[in-house]
Amino acid sequence: MSNDGAPPLDAAPADAALVERYLEHVRVERRLAARTVTLYGLDLEKLSGLAAAAGIGLLAVQPAHVRRWVAQMHAGGRSGRGIALVLSGWRGFYAWLGREGRVAANPVQDVRAPRQPRPLPKALGVDDAVRLADFHAEGEATDPWLEARDAALVELLYGSGLRVGEVVGLDAVASDAALRAGRGWIDLPAAEVQVQGKGGKRRTVPLGQAALAALAHWLAVRGQCPQAARAQGALFIGRHGTRLTAQSIWQRLRRRSLQAGLATPVHPHMLRHSFASHLLQSSGDLRAVQELLGHASIGTTQVYTRLDFQHLAKAYDAAHPRAHRKKD
User: 3-state class of 151 per DSSP?
Assistant: First the structure.
């Protein structure tokens, strides 16, 4: 290294030649798309600049250098995902240099991008969730049969926290066919829903009074569909008598939430998140929420404690006399 911290005079042209050879390799031999080759070139241009600023050539880069550059990118606001993509490009470059016999070890091999914070699930506020559950479409264009079905869907999704796939797989009553097919069912007398969850695991989830009433009403009118006999036991069916699909439920719920005047279109998993968050706010029983949701690991359920804290923080900011400084 020279006294001014610059790399050796012959390093820059040599590094540029190596990068050009590598890009030719991925373009011709690996036949990568032109856009991908361009992105690789930009990542390696950044690498060359960082190495030059550190006073070293590309062949002299060590893991400590790469970790320092990762820290700089992260401090500069680069996302973990963005850094991971850059490292992937660098890692491929040094793997090629290793095959060419130019480096003894890949300095990027064991360097990982900072972990991204797990995004909080989107949940409705209690008022919005109740507003959606209480909504009833009216007017001459309203189909009472569809209204009864969609109201029962909302009450079941919000009242029991089921996954949309679990709702799709529900039958109206228990049967040998449902057991053989691995489907769940509604047990109104017991106020329970028997759920076939992920990995074939069964669980029992209680039904609240609102969900019981909505389901009882839906079952009373379900048979009014001329094609209902084709449903083969499915709890939720369409006008053609076939079992509702997950996509259909997404579409109906989105439409209903907008009709109810909610600012954000609602999807089924948002109601599952709302169920978990509101239950945890009221009970504080994380284990119970885990069991009701059918999570294999308590760690998966713990994300709702962050939602709960977020709710408490907002309440504090809005109401506590010490939350805000007094204005002069």
Answer: helix
Secondary structure (3-state) at 310 = helix
Give catalytic status of residue 314 as yes or no. Answer: no
pTM for this prediction: 0.58
Q: Which of 222, 256, 267, 272 is catalytic?
A: 272
Tell me the per-residue pLDDT of 147-183, one tens digit each, with 9 for 90 and over: 999 999 999 999 888 999 999 999 988 888 877 877 8
For residue 94, indicate whether it is catalytic: no
CA–CA separation, 57 vs 14, rounded Å?
9
Q: How many residues does the chain have?
A: 328
Which pair of tokens denotes residue 227? 């094609």
Determine the Cα–Cα distance for residues 293 and 163; give it in Å rounded to an integer. Answer: 8
Rounded to whole angstroms, how far apart are CA atoms 32 and 49?
24
Q: Is 217 an annotated catalytic residue?
A: no
Residue 192, helix vs strand vs coil: strand
- At 4 the pLDDT is 44
